[in-house]
């Protein structure tokens, strides 16, 4: 095994991020495209089981661990990073922003190729830092959104760290079970550690109630920054969820089903293009979370197939939306229309991405969604609310599919196919077109040639020896299912089009906790400063009285006889002294006990 092969990609990519930020714009972006692209053949060729074990903070750590799950993540992360850098150059991003973006890519690589929990949480937290810097770089409204993003991800990382420490207490090691010296049982320790891990990771994947950072943050920064942001945090979260719960968990599976429906519903309410796409990140990640939660080989293969496919079509959707914003300066669907005549390449790329995310036959989303839905039917329980032949989780996922069709029919209708745009605008420039068409082609290739996708999955979904139910993509029932969902989506949009057009901004949970956090922090700061000021005044007054009493006792006594107003400061000073003495005695007694 060559020494070069054993170098963790995070090292090379972090160095690259620094180099790119210092080079001239053209040269920096050229290097920025090349190195992540080289990570793809590296991830394909590095031997399975390769690991780099060392000491980190005095504990056993594995900085590089290669298995089918990390390999798949490395392939798709390297591929989309290279395309996103090309798109960044074409969209006038500066090298500093691209440097931040590549540091974000690097820390994501560090997390998915970690072989122990300590290394994973180290890069997990760095990933929150680098992505926050990427958001902040744009300035304006992105600064406050980035601050809220950082707070929430800091909370999630803290909970995950607490889970990892509890896990260490139970098993005595941070190592994953798949590496030499690791524990016999895979995953996080059941009980408190598992609950903390689920919530901590739930922030990254967008659990309902912990999701509002997605539509709050991703529409704010530069259009090229959004392409990076839509990929790495949530998908690394899905990877972390698998590491914590390799055998699945019923509650996580149903949370995934709920996310699929909730995200699609709120996406349907949006008129801001990137906000709509952000809600659909939550919805689509819900399918992945459901696959992990089901826990079977079939469903987990589907979860990671959907990770792979989602990165392609979601990156493409953000690129197409970015081109529209780049050319028109408009974010709102209400101010667009008829752009397919002006921007046929962008409209075509959007159509491929929309059909892919909705799971229409012939596109990659149809393949991976189908695996997860099959897993929900054949390898999971009926649940509390089965509807005929459809089990509870299954119909939640199907309902999310209808909502997805409705959302993207809405997006395409208002942005590209309804009416006429009131001025002439150019289509995507040459390099933007190259980036979009390349990803669109992959969405079709992995949809038509499903065996190409199956070849990189961690489990062989076509083998009876591996999965409980062998999966076949292009069966008559599955094709009918895909077409029926599309028809229901079309009917649903036609029925709801008029009432949806009258909607303003629909409040989400962030309309409650954003003001609560803002005013809560402000109240805390004001309270602390005012308390300090009050104590300071009291101490100054008491000190003045004591000083005057010692130096000129006769004058003080005389003034007290003539002016009762001095009695009150003296009493305050004496009271404060007694309070301080009482606190000191209490602390001393507690320490001695």
TrEMBL record:
This is Na(+)/H(+) antiporter subunit D. Residues 114-375 form the NADH:quinone oxidoreductase/Mrp antiporter transmembrane domain. InterPro entries: ComplexI-like_HydComp, ND/Mrp_TM. It is found in: Cell membrane. Keywords: Cell membrane, Membrane, Oxidoreductase, Transmembrane, Transmembrane helix. Its main location: membrane. The chain crosses the membrane at residues 69-87, 99-115, 121-138, 150-168, 188-210, 222-245, 251-269, 285-305, 311-329, 393-413, 434-456, 476-495, 572-592. GO terms for molecular function: oxidoreductase activity. One of its GO terms (cellular component) is plasma membrane. Pfam families: Proton_antipo_M. It is a multi-pass membrane protein.
